[in-house]
C-alpha cells in the first residue's frame, strides 16, 4: 500500500469519525424520520440537507438531540398537516403562521403534552377545532385565527376534552374563522389566567356568557362582527381590561351599562358600534385616566354629550356618528382632539367642525434615529444601520393585535420595543448589531404593523478579513506542511467556492439588477423598453431631497413626490415604505411589465430606482387629478355629457390596448374612477398597474389567482371562482361607466349602483326613467343624445356571466358609435385645456395624488402585487 493511499485512508477515517461524533449529538432517528414524513405531505418545503435536523435545518430547533420547535413562519408551505405531528413528544413550539396549509387540524395534536405555543394563524385550515387541544395542559398561546374553521368552540363533557381545560393559557385567538353556535358558559371560569380573548369575525350566536366576567385577568376582549344576542355582559370589576370591542352584534336594546364608569381603570379603547345602545353617555366615561378611543357610532344614543373638564389627557378620538344626540356642552377647557357627531340631530343646523368626518391625516410616521452617529452613504443595496454601519438588513413586519394605545406617533412605545428586541438578542447571543423600526400603521382589523430591519453584526469585519493577504499567506503556508493538510485546504476551498456561489445567488435574489450595466446596451436584466434606471441621488436631487414642499400624497405603498427632470419635465415618484417593498425579483418583474405598456391613454412609466435599499417608480405627472376628483367636484372641473363620452372612450381604448395589443396581454384588475387620470387636455389615462396580471401562453382563457381588487367594482364571477379573465375588467369598466353618468360611488350607504340602476330602469320612458339618478352636472336640461345606448352597453358589461359581456374592443366600437350619434367625431383629439371646464373653488386640489384621493383608492402598485 503506497504512502499516498495510506494518507487518503487516514483522511477518510478522520472524516468518518467526525461524522459519527456529530451524529451522536444530533437529532434522534425517530425525529428525523418524522420530519421526512411531514415533508412528504407538503410542497415548497425548505431545502433540508444532511442527516441531522439539528444541524441548520431551516425552521427546526433542537434541545438535547430532540426537536423542540418547528417554526415555518411565512414560508408559503402548501399541503396538509400530517397526523404524525402528534409523535414529536418533546415539541414545545409549533408555529406555521402565514403558510398555505389546508385540510383539518389533526386530532393527534392533542398528544403534544409539552406544547406551549400553537400558532396556525393565516392558513386555510378547515373543519372543527380539535377538542383534543384541551389535553395540552402546558399551552400558553393558542392562535388559530384567520383560517376557515367551523363548528362550535369545543368544551369538555365527560371524557371529552375542551378548551375550558386550558387553565394556563393566556391567549385565545380564534378570530376570522367560520365558528358557529353558542359560546357555552363552561368555556370560561375563575381558574383561568386568560389575557386575550379574540372571537371576532365568526358566526357565533346567542348570549355572551356571564362567566366571561369571572376571568379577572382579561386585558383584551374582541367579540365584534358575530350574530350575538341577549344582554350586554357585565364587565364591572375587570380592572385589567384595556381593550373592548363588541361592535356589530344584535344585543338587546339596552341603556348604557353601569360599567361605563371609572370602574374599568385600565380601559384605553371602547368600541361598541352598532350594538343597539341607547340613552345618554355618562360624563364619567371620559374621565377614565387611560382612555384613548371611544367608538359608539350607529346606535340609539340621545340627550347631551358632555366631555367634562377632567377628561383623559390621552383621549384621541370620540366617534358618535349616526345617533340621536341633540346637544353638546362646550366647556372652558374645550376638547381639542377628534370628536365626530355627524348624522345626529344636533348637526342638522350646525356646521361646526365636529359635524363632519375629519380628513384623514394619514399614518403617523416614526423611524429609529441614529445612535449619536452620522449615517453612511452605503453601496448598492446596503442600508445604514442605527449604528451607522452599512449592511444588508433582514426585513420583516411586526404585527401586534389589539395594541393598547391609539397615538401611533408616540415614540416612547417604539423605543421601548427596540430596547426589548436588542436585550433579547443579547441574552440569546444572537449576532445582531442593531434593529430599526419604522412606519407604524393600523390595518383594517386594527392590528398594529411596524416595519422591522435587523442588522447583523460582523459584516464589515468579515469583509475585511476575506481580503487580508496575510490570512491567505498563512493558509497557503499551512497547506504546504503535508498532504493531509493540503487535502483539507482543497476541501475548504471547494466549500468556500460553493458558499460564494450560494451568496451570489442570494445576492441576485435580493438585487436582480446588480449585474446589469444600464450604459452597456446589453440585453441583460431587466428587460426594459423605454424605461430608465435612476440612481437614488438623482431622484433626491430632482425632488429637492424629498422635501415636504415636493410631497404630494401618500398611501399604503408609501409617499409620492413631485420631481422635475433637468429638461423641465415633471414626474411623479412613488417611493415605497419598507413594509411595502417586494423582493427584488418581483420588483424587476413589475417594471418589465410596465415598461412594455405604451399608449396615449395609459400613464407612462418613465423609470425606476432600485438603489440604497430603495424601491421607487417614476411616472409621468398627470396634472388634472382623477376622474373621481372631477365627478365629486373636488377638482373644480365640470364635465358635461360630451366630455364624459370622450373620457369613457379614452379609458376604453387604453384598456382595450392592454387586453388585445400588449405583449403579453394584460388584465388590469383594478379599474375604478381613482385610477383614471385626466391630463392637461382632459384626456383619460388609465393608471396604477399594481394589481395587473399578464396573460401568458400557459394561461388559456383565465388565470387562477388570489382575488384582488376594489369592492364595488369587482367582478362577482371572479370573486366567486377566483378565475381571472379579461371580462373581469369589462365588468369593472361597466361600473365605471355608471359612475360617469351618476357621479355616485359604486356602493353608497349600502346601496349598489348596478342594482339601483337596474331597479329604476324603464325602457319605455325618456332617458330610461333615470333622471333622478343621473348627475345633475351632466346637463339634464340639454339633449343627452345616445344616453340610452350608453346605458344598454353598461348593462351588457355588468352581465352576471362573463361570457355574456362584450370584449373591450367591442366596447370601444360601441362608444364610438354613440359619439357619432351625439354629433361628435370619436377620432378627434381633445385640444381644450382644463381651464375651459374649470369652476375652481378656493382651496380645491387639482393633482391626482392628494391625500384624500389615495385614501379612497389605495392606489400604490407594489403594495398590492400578487406574486403568485
Automatic annotation (TrEMBL):
Molecular function terms from GO: ATP binding; protein serine/threonine kinase activity
Tagged with keyword Glycoprotein: yes
Cellular compartments per GO CC: membrane
SMART domains named in the record: S_TKc
Signal peptide region: 1-21
Region span, Disordered: 825-848
Compartments where located: Membrane
Residues that span the membrane, as ranges: 470-497
SUPFAM superfamilies reported for this sequence: L domain-like (SSF52058), Protein kinase-like (PK-like) (SSF56112)
Sorted UniProt keywords: ATP-binding, Glycoprotein, Kinase, Leucine-rich repeat, Membrane, Nucleotide-binding, Receptor, Repeat, Serine/threonine-protein kinase, Signal, Transferase, Transmembrane, Transmembrane helix
Classification via Gene3D superfamilies: Phosphorylase Kinase, domain 1, Ribonuclease Inhibitor, Transferase(Phosphotransferase) domain 1
Domain Protein kinase per the UniProt entry, residue ranges: 546-819
Binding site for ATP: 574
Known EC number: 2.7.11.1
PANTHER family (UniProt xref): LEUCINE-RICH REPEAT RECEPTOR PROTEIN KINASE HPCA1, RECEPTOR-LIKE PROTEIN 55
Protein name: non-specific serine/threonine protein kinase
Source species taxonomy: Eukaryota, Viridiplantae, Streptophyta, Embryophyta, Tracheophyta
Amino acid at each position: 500500500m503506497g504512502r499516498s493511499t495510506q494518507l487518503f485512508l487516514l483522511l477518510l477515517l478522520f472524516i468518518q469519525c467526525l461524522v459519527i461524533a456529530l451524529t451522536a449529538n444530533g437529532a434522534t432517528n425517530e425525529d428525523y424520520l418524522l420530519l421526512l414524513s411531514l415533508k412528504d405531505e407538503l410542497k415548497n418545503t425548505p431545502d433540508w440537507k444532511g442527516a441531522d435536523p439539528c444541524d441548520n435545518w431551516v425552521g427546526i430547533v433542537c434541545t438535547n438531540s430532540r426537536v423542540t420547535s418547528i417554526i415555518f413562519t411565512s414560508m408559503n408551505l402548501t399541503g396538509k398537516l400530517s397526523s404524525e405531528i402528534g409523535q414529536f413528544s418533546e415539541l414545545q413550539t409549533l408555529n406555521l403562521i402565514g403558510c398555505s396549509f389546508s385540510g383539518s387540524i389533526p386530532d393527534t395534536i392533542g398528544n403534544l403534552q409539552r406544547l406551549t405555543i400553537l400558532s396556525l394563524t393565516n392558513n386555510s385550515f378547515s373543519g372543527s377545532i380539535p377538542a383534543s387541544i384541551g389535553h395540552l395542559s402546558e399551552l400558553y398561546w393558542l392562535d388559530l385565527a384567520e383560517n376557515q374553521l367551523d363548528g362550535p368552540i369545543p368544551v369538555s363533557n365527560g371524557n371529552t376534552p375542551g378548551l375550558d381545560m386550558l387553565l394556563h393559557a393566556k391567549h385565545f385567538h380564534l378570530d376570522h374563522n367560520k365558528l358557529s353556535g353558542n359560546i357555552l358558559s363552561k368555556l370560561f371560569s375563575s381558574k383561568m389566567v386568560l389575557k386575550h380573548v379574540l372571537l371576532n369575525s365568526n358566526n357565533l350566536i346567542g348570549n355572551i356568557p356571564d362567566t366571561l366576567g369571572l376571568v379577572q385577568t382579561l386585558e383584551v376582549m374582541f367579540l365584534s362582527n358575530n350574530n350575538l344576542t341577549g344582554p350586554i355582559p357585565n364587565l364591572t370589576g375587570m380592572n385589567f381590561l384595556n381593550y373592548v370591542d363588541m361592535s356589530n352584534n344584535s344585543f338587546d336594546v339596552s341603556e348604557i351599562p353601569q360599567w361605563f364608569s371609572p370602574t374599568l381603570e385600565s380601559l384605553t379603547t371602547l368600541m361598541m358600534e352598532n350594538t343597539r345602545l341607547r340613552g345618554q353617555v355618562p360624563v364619567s366615561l371620559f374621565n377614565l385616566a387611560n382612555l384613548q378611543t371611544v367608538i359608539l357610532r350607529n346606535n340609539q344614543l340621545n340627550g347631551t354629550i358632555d366631555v367634562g373638564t377632567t377628561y383623559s389627557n390621552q383621549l384621541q378620538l370620540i366617534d358618535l356618528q349616526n345617533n340621536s344626540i341633540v346637544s353638546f356642552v362646550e366647556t372652558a377647557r374645550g376638547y381639542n382632539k377628534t370628536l365626530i357627531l355627524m348624522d345626529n340631530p344636533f348637526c342638522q343646523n350646525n356646521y361646526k367642525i365636529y359635524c363632519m368626518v375629519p380628513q384623514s391625516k394619514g399614518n403617523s410616521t416614526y423611524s429609529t434615529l441614529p445612535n449619536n452617529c452620522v449615517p453612511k452613504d452605503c453601496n448598492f443595496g446596503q442600508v445604514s444601520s442605527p449604528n451607522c454601519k452599512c449592511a444588508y438588513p433582514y426585513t420583516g413586519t411586526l404585527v401586534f393585535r389589539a395594541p393598547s394605545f391609539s397615538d401611533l406617533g408616540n415614540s416612547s412605545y417604539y423605543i421601548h420595543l427596540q430596547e426589548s428586541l436588542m436585550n433579547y438578542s443579547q441574552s440569546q447571543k444572537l449576532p445582531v448589531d442593531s434593529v430599526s423600526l419604522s412606519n407604524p400603521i393600523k390595518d383594517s382589523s386594527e392590528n398594529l404593523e411596524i416595519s422591522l430591519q435587523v442588522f447583523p453584526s460582523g459584516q464589515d469585519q468579515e469583509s475585511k478579513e476575506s481580503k487580508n493577504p496575510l490570512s491567505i499567506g498563512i493558509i497557503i503556508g499551512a497547506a504546504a506542511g503535508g498532504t493531509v493538510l493540503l487535502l483539507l485546504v482543497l476541501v475548504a476551498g471547494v466549500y468556500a467556492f460553493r458558499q460564494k456561489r450560494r451568496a451570489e445567488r442570494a445576492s441576485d435574489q435580493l438585487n436582480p439588477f446588480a449585474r446589469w450595466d444600464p450604459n452597456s446596451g446589453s440585453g441583460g436584466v431587466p428587460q426594459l423598453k423605454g424605461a430608465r434606471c435612476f440612481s437614488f441621488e438623482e431622484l433626491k436631487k430632482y425632488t429637492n431631497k424629498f422635501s415636504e414642499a415636493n410631497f404630494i400624497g401618500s398611501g399604503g405603498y408609501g409617499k409620492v413626490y413631485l420631481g422635475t427632470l433637468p429638461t423641465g419635465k415633471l414626474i411623479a415618484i412613488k417611493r415605497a415604505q419598507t413594509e411595502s417593498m417586494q423582493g427584488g425579483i418581483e420588483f424587476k418583474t413589475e417594471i418589465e411589465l410596465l415598461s412594455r405598456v405604451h399608449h396615449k391613454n395609459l400613464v407612462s412609466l418613465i423609470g425606476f430606482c432600485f438603489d440604497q435599499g430603495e424601491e421607487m417608480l417614476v411616472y409621468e405627472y398627470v396634472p388634472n387629478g382623477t376622474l373621481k376628483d372631477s365627478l365629486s367636484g373636488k377638482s373644480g372641473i365640470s364635465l358635461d355629457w360630451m366630455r364624459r363620452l370622450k373620457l369613457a372612450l379614452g379609458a376604453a381604448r387604453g384598456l382595450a390596448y392592454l387586453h388585445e395589443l400588449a405583449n403579453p396581454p394584460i388584465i388590469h384588475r383594478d379599474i375604478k374612477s381613482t385610477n383614471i387620470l385626466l391630463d392637461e387636455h382632459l384626456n383619460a389615462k388609465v393608471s396604477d398597474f399594481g394589481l395587473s396580471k399578464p396573460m401568458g401562453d400557459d394561461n388559456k382563457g383565465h388565470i387562477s389567482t388570489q382575488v384582488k381588487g376594489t369592492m364595488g367594482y369587482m367582478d362577482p364571477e371572479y370573486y366567486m371562482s377566483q378565475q381571472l379573465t379579461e371580462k373581469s375588467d369589462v365588468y369593472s369598466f361597466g361600473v365605471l361607466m355608471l359612475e360617469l353618468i351618476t357621479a355616485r360611488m359604486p356602493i353608497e350607504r349600502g346601496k349598489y349602483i348596478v342594482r339601483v340602476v337596474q331597479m329604476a330602469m324603464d325602457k319605455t320612458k325618456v332617458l330610461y326613467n333615470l333622471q333622478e339618478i343621473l348627475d345633475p352636472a351632466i346637463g339634464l336640461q340639454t339633449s343627452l343624445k345616445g344616453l340610452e345606448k350608453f346605458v344598454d352597453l353598461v348593462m351588457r358589461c355588468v352581465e352576471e356571466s362573463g361570457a355574456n359581456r362584450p370584449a373591450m374592443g367591442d366596447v370601444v366600437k360601441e362608444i364610438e358609435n354613440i359619439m357619432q350619434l351625439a354629433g361628435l367625431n370619436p377620432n378627434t383629439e381633445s385640444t381644450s385645456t382644463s381651464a375651459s371646464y374649470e369652476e375652481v373653488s378656493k382651496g380645491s386640489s387639482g393633482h391626482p395624488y392628494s391625500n384624500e384621493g389615495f385614501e379612497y383608492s389605495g392606489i400604490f402598485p407594489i403594495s398590492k402585487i400578487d406574486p403568485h
